[in-house]
Predict the structure.
Amino acid sequence: MAKKIVTSDIKRPPKKLIKALAGISSATAAGELKKLGIRDPTFLGPVPRTPGKKIIGPAITLQFMPMREDQYAVDEYSNPEMQMHRHALYHTQPGDIVCVDARGDLQSGVFGEMMLTYFAGAGGAGIIVDGCIRDFPEVIKDLDIGLWLKGTTPNFHTQTNIFPHAVNVPIACGGRLVMPGDIIIADDDGAIVCPAQLAPELVHAAQAHAEWEVFSKMRLSQGGHLRKYYPLNAEARVEYEAWKKEQAGGEAAVAAPAKKKAKAKSKAKSKAKSKAKVKTKTKK
């Protein structure tokens, strides 16, 4: 009887945190992570293959090793439960991202259409592969998942040089260390990895960065000088703070009537309820 394979799941971040990261681009994240002590979080090798797609989520990790026949002699379809790449996908929950250390190999398709159909059906957001997948035309046509890949190939996963070895262990993907549960941000610029413990700090830093960039872009489009507005110099910073107050005041002015209306509606509803109760008591 074949030995049963058991693999660990990942610790997922609160959904609130992922939602807060949604407006942050990979470029902004890379710049802010540098300030937080991560010099280069960008994957080197896997490139965007699904234009316009952006994904943010926790990493399920899959590690491949160089093929050695005494360690791995499983064929493409024989003894499927011994194939570790399946076990990586078994952990999939909505929003998860599978990160694959395929050793940069360009002759092995680590996943194909059927495996990725399962992944998409389980709610997976996308994959980052330091290597290849196969069935690429069908995958890109039929599945709504993000793909950051080094390449594509007709070969199946263990046909040539590598085999799936471990799930949810630390891996090297695209020259970057990825720990199970780290946060991936991937878009048309590329993909970055954010250590899970730094994600709350990244949210705070990136939101502040995005705010001043909105102001900076507006001023540059109006003919403002690059020296003054990117990055903001001391004079521009004063302007920015004043603009921020104006924006906050405008939002409050817009929100006030709606709040007042909702309060009045709630009051009227409460009054009507009280009247109905009095009427019922009188009838009795």
Remarks:
- The chain has a mean pLDDT of 89.
- Residues 15-204 form a domain with the Glucose Oxidase; domain 1 fold (CATH 3.50.30.40).
- The longest strand covers residues 55-66.
